[in-house]
Amino acid sequence: MTRRPTAEGRRPANQGPKAAARNRTALIAAAREIFAEHGLSAPLSAIARRAGVGQGVLYRHFPDRNAVAAAVLEENVRQIEQAAAAEDATLSVVLGVVTWHMTESAAFVSLVHAETANGRVGTHAYARDLSERVERALRGLLPDGHRLGAANDLMLAVAMVSGAVTGPTREEQEHRALAAWRLLGVEVGPVRPHGG
Amino acid sequence: MTRRPTAEGRRPANQGPKAAARNRTALIAAAREIFAEHGLSAPLSAIARRAGVGQGVLYRHFPDRNAVAAAVLEENVRQIEQAAAAEDATLSVVLGVVTWHMTESAAFVSLVHAETANGRVGTHAYARDLSERVERALRGLLPDGHRLGAANDLMLAVAMVSGAVTGPTREEQEHRALAAWRLLGVEVGPVRPHGG
């Protein structure tokens, strides 16, 4: 790599479709971190800075805050699907990935939940779509006779664990998530991102 | 009773400290219903109307929307404490009352959860205080060797069930709450308010 950071610590603006895809990926990863650290009302400029791009680049990809948040959720689900599609995937490993996203995106999960409970139907349909994709990814890995094998128990358990993911620090959130899975009698692998 | 509804279907304005207490109680009950039906952004005028008082009376008791919401949560916890203090109280009966408040106030529970996850510390301290009161009320009823007897498992389970309380209708919310308790292997009595 011959490119060097600019004086502001940013990489020079990327151009072309490959660079655009790279910027988008960096923005989504940065948004997940910034939202997790500072909540959903964190300034978008902080996201652009963390991703190493200018704010103009951010707005080229995402017209507003909701679009950024939706992209993070979408990417969470995509990573869960990828983890479930891996050749050596097991339910416990993928539940570890699900749990990582739950704790990393605790603020989101709650927001979607709050908006659903408040009856905002648009959000509800969107949340249901994402939830159905997670369910499909997990259901294919359910061993026969698993404790969560009955009709809706799988996603009910996921919702229950997401309800437990509170606390001031990431560590406490993860600790509570694992305690919740234990209470449900469900084995969960290491809490980490897919490929992480 | 000699008082009659006015033309607008309201009872005439109550006066004096007893009437003030009666109005406050009616406003809180109305707020719980209206928020459950229409979400937390429902017009306060609808709450006053449901309680059968004028908006001026509402504002005399509650300076703003947050004050109304806080009063509902406070009253929820008070009713749980009363249920737990009853002579024939059992854990399962009181968990039924807790579950009733969870489903009746699903929008709130999510909001408190979302604000906590978003790191709004004021709300966090307030939510923790309410949560500790519920824990004290329930802990006194835990039989020896109960499944939720270990350190934080009791309130973890309550948080998990509250995470499951979603869905477009009250019936579905209650159904999911009961399914969640079942998954946890915890017996829960009828879902109803204290004294209801």
From TrEMBL, chains A, B:
Residues 21-80 form the HTH tetR-type domain. The keyword DNA-binding applies. Gene3D superfamilies: Tetracycline Repressor, domain 2. Residues 1-11 have a biased composition (Basic and acidic residues). The keyword DNA repair does not apply. Pfam families: TetR_N. Residues 43-62 bind DNA. InterPro entries: Homeodomain-like_sf, HTH-type_TetR-like_transc_reg, HTH_TetR. Keywords: DNA-binding, Transcription, Transcription regulation. Residues 1-21 are annotated as: Disordered. PANTHER family: HTH-TYPE TRANSCRIPTIONAL REGULATOR BETI (PTHR30055:SF234), HTH-TYPE TRANSCRIPTIONAL REGULATOR RUTR (PTHR30055). This is Helix-turn-helix domain-containing protein. It comes from Streptomyces johnsoniae. The lineage of its organism: Bacteria, Bacillati, Actinomycetota, Actinomycetes, Kitasatosporales.
